[in-house]
Design goal:
Number of domains: 2
Strand content: under 5%
CATH superfamily of the largest domain: Phosphate transport system protein phou homolog 2, domain 2
Number of helices: 13
Helix content: over 70%
Largest sheet: none
Mean pLDDT: 80
Radius of gyration: 28 Å
Low-confidence stretches: none
Structural class: mainly alpha
Number of strands: 0
CATH topology of the largest domain: Methane Monooxygenase Hydroxylase, Chain G, domain 1
Length: 360
């Protein structure tokens, strides 16, 4: 099991909240630790955005909790009503992400109140805010997330898995039961990399120069994900229409295999070029090969399309595969131009901060 930075940040925030609460003399520091646990965010930008929302939500929860306890007591059904109101308010304001912390705030304040309830509630509220600010400080200072590293390696891993299966299908060496299991993993991995991309896109730099460079990378990574998703669509289409692919004429089958091999190799080299392992402009030779292969594939397809020996229905099933391969080649060419442009222009500003896996 691999422990990520967020796990360590959560533990650090909880520890920090406990020490602060103990140093300030609170009798139940565990409540501050609980609030810190819920307040930890996956990125610095989310911490900056949500800190004010968390403060507002906690104030509203505290006010509701105090009013209802003073008016109706602290019976379980009263706590339930307050929880329902808090959830409803935050959903209405589209603040769903802070609902757990807001609910915890109300439950902590309404639990086992004393005769001096106002002071008791204020004490609990301050404990919760200590937890919130402890998590905020840890998010801002310690172990900042390396989303660029994570995103690149997740894209690379997904591509490797997809391309491996595409090659196995085209060489008729596939085990469909294993492919079915891996397709689910591939869908999950693509969803995860989209989530990481969202976090990376939401990041902000305090310096304008760095922000311009980061936004260029956002465009690059968006296109990388587009190419990965296009490759996934080809894999899905090839596996779905495997019978039509296997029944193709030898010339068509060999040309298809050759063109897809060119494209997958091209895809791998583009990613390596962004990593700095392949020189800029070094994929120029692929342009002509892929362009020629694309035209040959279309010409052969049109030639055999009118062949009476081949059933028309098989061609109808095979047509989406051809369309996806053409789209895939165009997306790769666009990605290659973006990478070349990234390393050709604004060279003083653009810096790739990708590390090997064992370094982050």
């Amino acid at each position: 099991m691999r422990l990520g930075a967020r796990i360590f940040k959560t533990g650090l925030a909880v520890t920090f909240a406990l020490y602060v609460a103990m140093w300030l003399g609170f009798q139940t520091p565990a409540f501050g630790a609980l609030a810190a646990f819920f307040a930890v965010q996956p990125s610095v930008h989310k911490s900056l955005i949500l800190i004010w929302d968390q403060i507002q939500a906690n104030i509203i929860s505290a006010v509701l909790a105090i009013v209802f306890v003073l008016a109706f007591g602290h019976e379980p059904f009263v706590v339930g009503v307050v929880v329902v109101l808090i959830i409803s308010i935050n959903i209405k304001w589209k603040k769903e992400t802070i609902i757990p912390l807001a609910v915890v705030t109300a439950i902590i304040i309404m639990g086992s109140p004393t005769d001096d309830f106002i002071n008791f509630a204020a004490n609990r509220f301050l404990l919760i805010m200590i937890g919130v600010f402890s998590a905020f400080i840890v998010n801002m200072i310690f172990l900042p997330p390396k989303h660029e590293n994570q995103l690149y390696h997740k894209i690379s891993d997904s591509n490797d898995q997809i391309i491996q299966w595409i090659r196995l299908i085209l060489h008729h060496e596939i085990d469909y039961s294993t492919l079915k299991q891996d397709m689910k993993k591939i869908r999950e991995s693509v969803l995860k990399l989209e989530n990481v991309f969202t976090l990376y896109k939401e990041e902000r730099s305090y310096f304008r120069k760095n922000e311009y460079s980061r936004m260029r990378k956002v465009v690059l990574f968006r296109q990388m994900i587009t190419c990965t998703k296009k490759a996934k669509e080809i894999l899905k289409s090839l596996s779905k229409h495997d019978n039509a692919v296997n029944s193709l004429p030898d010339e068509m089958s060999q040309l298809l295999q050759l063109q897809v091999d060119y494209l997958t190799n091209y895809h791998e080299r583009i990613l390596l070029k962004y990593m700095g392992k392949v020189k800029p402009q070094s994929t120029q030779d692929y342009y002509q090969e892929i362009n020629d292969g694309k035209h040959q594939l279309i010409n052969v397809f049109m030639t055999y399309h009118n062949d009476s020996q081949i059933e028309q229905e098989e061609w109808v099933h095979f047509l989406p595969v051809i369309a996806l391969i053409i789209e895939y080649s165009e997306e790769l060419e666009h990605l290659d131009r973006l990478v070349d442009g990234f390393f050709t222009y604004h060279t003083d500003d653009n810096e790739v901060k990708i590390r090997e896996r064992d370094q982050y």
